[in-house]
Each structure stands twice: as structure tokens, then as C-alpha cells.
Amino acid sequence: MSNKEIQMQRMWQYFVDATTEIIEQKGIDNVTIREIATKAGYNSATIYNYFQEVSHLIFFAALKYLNKFIDELPEYMEKGDTPLDKYLLSWESFCKHSFEEPEIYNAIFLADLGENPEELLKHYYNVYQSDLYGEVTEDIKTILTDYNLSTRSRNALDQSVQEGVLSEEEAAVINERTVLIWQGMLITVLNNRRHLNANAATNKTMQHINEIVNDYRLVK
């Protein structure tokens, strides 16, 4: 890595770390370019040399909060005996954490980031190598490094297809409906449309997801 690349990476981290501090101190809704610049000790114009818009900084800062989910996930999935069990357990863990911090997960998975959000995620893990967790199974690594919710949990479903538990079409339907249910619940929680705490939202979401999976099992 050249000196210029090292300097760019260092500056990039300054601004992301400043954004993280603002989220912790004032909440994600109060993150602005001016606040980030002040916290990092630079002017606002400098930030645009490294980031296209504030949503990208919020996205990068929010990714740090996924560590709680990442830490729990391997042990959580070990409770499952089959790939389909592991699929359900991964979603249960994901729901629990996302409904506890809906603004964070909205910033990562639902907010408008413009073009190529996958490239943003790739860049994040290039800078924060320690957050990739080298000692994880392939299915968990896919969950951690795939921005698209429609593909991040397909590994377990694909294994279920190979085992004859699901057909290709059924796996696709389960995946699509699961994502849509989670998205709907997260938006409901964010907009205070129903008075549900994180535990109640998780239980309600997983009730629907379990019903969907059980409806499509070929082997009961």
C-alpha cells in the first residue's frame, strides 16, 4: 500500500469514527456533514473528497454495530440440526438485533445509498479487516459480506434444495417472502405503527417466517 493510499484510508477512518461517535452520542437522525466535520476536526468540503454523501458515512458507521449480531450468530446457528433449522435461527438472531436497533439496520439494508451499495460494503471490509472474522463457516461469511438481503441467507436454503427438502422454486419463494416480512416489520417498528418492543416484533416476525417454511417443507 502506497503512502497516498495509507493517508486516504486514515482519513476515511477518521470520518467514519467521527460518525460513529455522533450516532452514539446524539442518535443516527442527528448525523450531518457539519457535525461530522466538526467532530473529526476538518471542514465539510474535505469530507466530499472521500465520500459522495452523508448516507454513505452513516452506512459505514452503522456497519460497526453489526458486530453484536456477528458475535452471536455462529453459536446461535449451531443449535440447528439441519440447514433449514440454521436458516430459521439466522433470521431469528437477525430479527432480534435489527428490531433492537431499527435505525441502524435501516441505514444498512433499506436506506437509499445510490448506485453499487455492494462496492461500499466491499470497501468497508477492505479497511476494517478485523470485522470480517476469519474463523467462520462459509454460510455465515455469506451472511456477513453480502449486502443484498435476497442472497445473504440463500446458502442454507440451497443446501435444503440439494437435500431434497425444498425445490428451487420453493426456496426462492421462501426467501422472497421472508425478506418482505422482515422489511415490513422493520418499517412498522421505525414508524411506530404498532407498539411492539424488540422481543414482540421478533416473535411476530418469526411466527410468520416459520409458517412459511413449514408450508413449503417436502419432508415434515
From TrEMBL:
Keyword Acetylation found: no
DNA-binding region, residues: 32-51
Boundaries of every HTH tetR-type domain copy: 9-69
Entry keywords, A to Z: DNA-binding, Repressor
InterPro entries (alphabetical): Homeodomain-like_sf (IPR009057), HTH-type_Tx_Regulator (IPR050624), HTH_TetR (IPR001647)
SUPFAM superfamilies: Homeodomain-like (SSF46689)
Pfam entry (one): TetR_N
Membrane-crossing residue ranges in chain numbering: none
Official protein name in the record: TetR/AcrR family transcriptional regulator
Organism: Oceanobacillus locisalsi
